[in-house]
Specification:
Transfers the 4'-phosphopantetheine moiety from coenzyme A to a Ser of acyl-carrier-protein. 47% of the residues lie in helices and 30% in strands. The chain is of the alpha+beta class.
Amino acid sequence: MIYGIGTDICDIRRIRETLARRGERFAEKVLGPHELAVFRERSARVPARGISYLATRFSAKEAFSKAIGMGMRMPMSWRDCEIVKAASGKPEIRLHGELAIWFEAKGLKAHVSVTDETEYAAAFVVVESKD
């Protein structure tokens, strides 16, 4: 049964400008530990790839917060929600802390899709209940 659906589109230029203004502190606020390592690795090789990665993760977390119906308020937090890649390459949501406890107690499962183009990143999340 569908619990919630969320979608988000993000202007990559806005992410680039925020990163230029605030530096890596912005990435550290939005990204979890695994994501931050991937961001740094991609940024070191090709800065534009790092920015696109940050934008897709930002968009996916916004979409997830909408799908669970709470926006960016506790237990939802930027760093407790990570978008990771499965061995197959499929994006998956990995939760930590109070958010993971809340999500598991509700018996929920999330599915996420992310995409990006030159100027935009977008994400779509479906959260289903096991009932």
